[in-house]
Specification:
The protein is of the alpha/beta class and about 260 residues long. About 40% of the residues lie in helices and about 15% in strands. The chain has eleven helices and eight strands. A five-stranded mixed beta sheet has the order 1-5-3-4-2. It has a three-stranded antiparallel beta sheet with strand order 6-7-8. A hairpin with a 2-residue loop joins β6 and β7. About 30% of the residues are buried.
Length: about 260
């Protein structure tokens, strides 16, 4: 163990020969499909918000270096761990600054009320894993002032959230990549435009976009040739798409396979 890391643990009253049991909880990978993760990675697809989160609700990361490790294993393996500790020692107030939504550069995905460090939204593995260790050490000490603890370990981050209707990421990606619409999802509103145009073809929220998508393939509403062309646009890349994407599109559009 690097001396600075050992010194830091000892400075927060951790016996490095007998870690608290919570240090051995495993860091979870983000429980999303590849398509759902891709959806969250594109700001125009997945509406992001700056909001507060508590470090107790941070349970995982998409960084393969740390996912699956225990919190203490990840802390000891942080690629910039020594630098983070040096910066913390020089300016502990830095962590107060990232509570400010206007100053934070952290990035997370929120799934079912839990948070996962997400590099495509900003990440922050080194800082957040270190903060998680500090939080767990304070909990283990038994000397808890809940109000102070909540204030100290509540931060702000750019949050990407998966919709409750798990069909929607597949629909958004099909609209943006297969059907070639311009997609902009901001402040809860989705706007679809013609590619390289400002002509708005749809404007609404996630509750409306599914009905709009399905309507594009309804021959009772659209000319059969137009529907065929739209299906052909999806079929062009369908064979090269992942199994999850194919299965979801087949559920939504039974006529996708000729």
């Amino acid at each position: 163990m690097n001396d600075i890391r050992k010194d830091f643990l000892e400075s927060i009253h951790i016996n490095t020969n007998n870690y608290p049991a919570t240090f051995y909880e495993r860091i979870q990978n983000i429980p999303l499909s590849n398509i759902e993760t891709e959806y969250c990675a594109v700001p125009n697809y997945c509406d992001g918000k700056k909001e507060e989160f508590h470090i107790r609700d941070l349970v995982g990361t998409n960084h393969q270096r740390y996912a699956g490790k225990t919190w203490i294993e990840a802390y000891l393996d942080l690629d910039r761990g020594a630098n983070i500790i040096e910066l913390y020692n020089k300016n502990p107030n830095y962590y107060k600054e990232i509570r400010d939504p206007n100053k934070t550069d952290l990035g997370l995905i929120k799934v079912d009320g839990k948070y996962y460090i997400f590099d495509k939204a900003g990440g922050g593995n080194n800082r957040l894993i270190t903060m998680k260790i500090m939080y767990l050490s304070e909990i283990a000490s038994g000397k808890i002032d809940s109000e102070k603890l909540n204030e100290k370990y509540t931060f702000s981050a750019r949050i990407r959230e998966i919709p409750k209707d798990r069909d929607l990421p597949y629909i958004i990606i099909a609209l943006g990549e297969d059907l070639d619409y311009g997609v902009n999802h901001s402040n809860g509103i989705i706007r679809l435009t013609k590619k390289f145009s400002n002509d708005v073809l749809f404007e609404g929220d996630l509750k409306n976009i599914k009905d709009f998508f399905l309507s594009l393939f309804d021959t009772n509403i659209n000319d059969e040739e137009v529907v065929r062309q739209r299906l052909d646009s999806i079929r062009k890349t369908f064979g090269f798409s992942g199994k999850q994407y194919q299965e979801k599109l087949e559920q939504l559009l039974p006529g996708i396979r000729e």
